Amino acid sequence: MLRALNLSLLILYPIAWAAPLMRAGLLPLFSLSEISILTGLQALWRTDIFLALVVTFFALVAPYLKTVGLALIHFGLASQRLLKPIQIMGKLAMADVFLIALYVVITKGIGVGRVEIAWGLYLFTALILASLLIGWRTEAQRN
Length: 143
What we know:
The radius of gyration is 17 Å and the shape is elongated. It has a single domain, classed as Up-down Bundle (Butyryl-CoA Dehydrogenase, subunit A, domain 3), CATH 1.20.140. The chain is built from 5 helices and 3 strands. It is about 75% helix and about 10% strand.
C-alpha cells in the first residue's frame, strides 16, 4: 500500500506544480491571474535567481527526491539508513507550503489586491502531508 501511494506521488507532484495555487489581482475590479508553482518560479527566475534556486529546491527537488528515496527503500534498492536524510528532506519540502500561506495572509492584510486560494494549493499541501505520512509509516515499519 505504501509503495503504491508513494509511487502515485511521482505522478501527482508535476500536476500540483502546474495547478493554480491562487488567483491574484492588483485591484478588486480587475480580473485575477492564476499563479502556480511553475509560473511563480518562472517569474522568480527573471527577477531573483538566488531566491528562485531556493524555492525550486524546496518546491520541486526536495519533495521529489524524498519520494524517489522512499521508493528505493520500499523496493529494497536502498538502505534503511537513508530514512533519516529523507525525513529531513520532507521537512524542507513543507517549508514552501508555509511560505505560500504566509504570502497569502500578507497580501490579504494589505488590502490593495485580491487573492483567492485555488485547488492546487490544497492538492500540493495534501501531497506534502501524504509524503510525510508515508515517511513516518516507512520508519515505523523499520522498527
